[in-house]
UniProtKB/TrEMBL annotation:
This is Uncharacterized protein. Residues 11-29 have a biased composition (Polar residues). SUPFAM superfamilies: HD-domain/PDEase-like. Residues 1-38 are annotated as: Disordered. It comes from Halomarina halobia.
Length: 90
């Protein structure tokens, strides 16, 4: 059971976001500091912006749109705070 749990564990923040110490610690590194080149080489923040934040516009029912609006606000707030943190504003 522990082996299964170990494999299912998500990567830690230090392995997901910018891997070089200088880029991750520099407040002026800007958006490049939040790039992630995982196994498939995708930029995770671009994925959030292009896919996750566009989901609310694809809901068909009133309840779906309502839920999507709430969740969109949470993710948009996260992205905004994360970018401010990387830029050294927080």
């Amino acid at each position: 059971m522990d082996a299964v749990r170990e494999r299912a564990r998500p990567p830690t923040t230090s392995t997901r976001w910018a891997r070089s110490g200088s880029a991750a610690s520099s407040p002026t590194a800007g958006r490049s500091a939040i790039r992630c080149t995982g196994e498939d080489g995708r930029d995770q923040l671009a994925h959030i912006e292009s896919k996750i934040l566009s989901l609310r516009d694809r809901m068909y029912t009133a309840r779906g749109r309502e839920l999507a609006e709430e969740r969109h606000a949470v993710v948009a707030r996260f992205v905004e705070r994360f970018e401010a943190e990387v830029a050294g504003e927080r």
